Amino acid sequence: MTDNATRIAFIGGGNMATAIIGGLVRQGLAPAQIAVVEPFEEARQRLDQQFGVQAEAAPGPALAGASMVVWAVKPQTFKEAAAQAGPTSGRPCT
Question: Which domains are assigned to the chain?
Fold first, then answer.
């Protein structure tokens, strides 16, 4: 599906991200190539148990090193998520 250098980071780890991650893993993307920024502990644990993906409470190096970022947040929380992710991603988020 993708080469080993591809890293996909998800902002948000809810239902939408879970569905996409499940499809990616089923298609052969290694869990080590997927990172998730998810503020809720329960959701992070679920993602780890279900797929073995790296899930962090806040943006960090995994986001900065991603070759692709998927925004999987509800519209009403996008502005807050973008403000937190902007300094870490090296990309403008306004």
Answer: 8-89 (3.40.50.720)
User: For residue 32, what are the CA distances in angstroms to 27, 79, 92?
Assistant: 14, 28, 26
Structure tokens at 84: 């937190």
Distance in angstroms (rounded) separating the CA atoms of residues 42 and 39: 9
User: pLDDT (tens digit, 0 to 9) for every residue of the chain, 94 residues total?
Assistant: 455 577 999 999 999 999 999 999 999 999 999 999 999 999 999 999 999 998 999 888 777 888 899 999 888 888 887 887 765 545 444 3
User: Within 13 Å of residue 72, how many CA atoms lie on the same side as its CB?
Assistant: 22
**CA–CA gap between residue 11 and residue 69 (Å, rounded):** 7
Contacts of 33 (CB under 8 A, 6+ apart): 2, 4, 6, 7, 8
